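Project outcomes to date are best conveyed with an example. Our students and postdoctoral researchers have been running inverse folding experiments weekly, and each run begins with a structure described purely in tokens. The record below, which covers 393 residues, was selected by the lab manager from last quarter's runs and is presented without edits.
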């Protein structure tokens, strides 16, 4: 592996500074921060009775997702004790699970840097597309593997203050330049030969990149595979819904996934214009669907759990941590208050009180995810001081 000389980094930063963000749900970091707490100024300790909806949630439904988080967190000193004790908790007893959380954790309400206590809650899901391994018939839109000339540069190796920040680019002569945008790759056919599979719907392929992973039912081989996030071209994610709003094609309230798809179908001459409004491009790798009931792996490296996993900003919320989310159902005022696990990240998930709610797999999950633009509050549960013990009551 070649080493990037420190003298090159200034030019790299100047050339690629606009390429630091990524499309959701691609993780902007690879490893959760070592500290279990986010900066103190955005967290305020409180009590469980003060968390709205805490007593009403059936914590048994969240327990499998918590144990999944512990597969990673148990290696961290502050999480070792609660994650070890969790293995012996009666999974069938809601009371035992509640006592466990209330004994080992302190809830901290999450605040934005401006002091506000609410933020945006969106949704995402794992879609199902149809396609084939070879191009033909209706299968005309490729999903691509990562190109061989894509470079990923970890700046933290030279500048500790830039830990977990990555830049992506390509080598041209002896200079590193930003990687091609979506429009550039389409125009130059730069990804020829890197096709993973071909799918039958270009707009669904685009939204697959927004979701970050999905499944493809292959009509030629009669198998269903998972296409998982592999990498990204380094360009920042830009919402095509916002593009249509700015162009006066729809209002902000109308800009759901469903309305964007309808506009795309109704405007064939402007389809590529719309897709190119987002310069970000996601590359995939193939995975087997070992258990259809499990979701794709998130940034924590564990399978997501439908309606119990969320994507967060890891600069504010530790990956893997339990987070109580108080929001409302998509497009409604009906309360949605439940314990979630911060197991994923995303390029559009920025800020402390900001969450992306994983709805699961399939069309029904997609309908809910596409409509979800709610306001919400968050409480992160962090371990108490080492030495705390589970109550016998």
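After processing, the design step wrote out the following sequence:
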């Amino acid at each position: 592996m070649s080493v990037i000389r420190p003298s090159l980094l200034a030019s790299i930063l100047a050339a690629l500074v606009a390429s630091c963000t990524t499309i959701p749900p691609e993780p902007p970091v690879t490893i959760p921060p070592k500290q279990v707490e986010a900066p103190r100024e955005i967290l305020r300790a409180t009590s469980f009775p003060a968390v709205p909806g805490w007593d009403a949630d059936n914590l048994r439904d969240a327990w499998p997702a918590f144990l999944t988080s512990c597969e990673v967190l148990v290696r961290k000193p502050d999480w070792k004790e609660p994650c070890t004790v969790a293995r012996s908790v009666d999974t069938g007893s809601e009371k035992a699970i509640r006592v466990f959380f209330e004994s080992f954790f302190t809830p901290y309400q999450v605040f934005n840097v401006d002091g506000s206590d609410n933020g945006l809650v969106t949704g995402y899901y794992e879609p199902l597309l149809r396609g084939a391994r070879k191009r033909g018939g209706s299968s005309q839109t490729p999903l691509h593997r990562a190109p061989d000339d894509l470079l990923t540069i970890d700046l933290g190796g030279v500048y500790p203050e830039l830990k977990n920040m990555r830049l992506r680019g390509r080598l041209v002569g002896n200079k590193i330049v930003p990687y091609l945008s979506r429009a550039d790759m389409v125009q130059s056919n730069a990804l020829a030969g890197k096709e993973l599979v071909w799918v039958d719907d270009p707009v669904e392929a685009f939204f697959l990149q927004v979701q970050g992973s999905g499944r493809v039912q292959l009509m030629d081989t009669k198998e269903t595979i998972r296409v998982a996030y592999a990498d990204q071209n380094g360009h920042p994610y830009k919402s095509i819904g916002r593009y249509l709003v700015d162009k006066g094609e729809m209002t902000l309230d109308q800009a759901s996934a469903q309305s964007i798809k309808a506009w795309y179908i109704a405007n064939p001459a402007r389809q590529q214009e719309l897709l190119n409004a987002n310069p970000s491009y996601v590359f995939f790798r193939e995975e087997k669907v070992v258990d259809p009931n499990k979701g794709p792996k998130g940034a924590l490296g564990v399978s997501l759990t439908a309606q119990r996993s969320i994507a967060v900003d890891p600069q504010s919320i530790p990956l893997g941590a339990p987070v109580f989310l108080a929001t409302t159902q998509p497009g409604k005022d009906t309360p949605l208050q439940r314990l979630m696990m911060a197991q994923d990240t995303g390029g559009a998930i920025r800020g402390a009180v900001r969450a992306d709610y994983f709805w699961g797999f399939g069309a029904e999950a997609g309908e809910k995810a596409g409509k979800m633009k709610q306001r919400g509050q968050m409480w992160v549960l962090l371990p108490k001081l080492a030495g705390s013990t589970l109550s016998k009551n």
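The chain is about 25% helix and 25% strand. The chain has a mean pLDDT of 87. The training component of this project remains on track.
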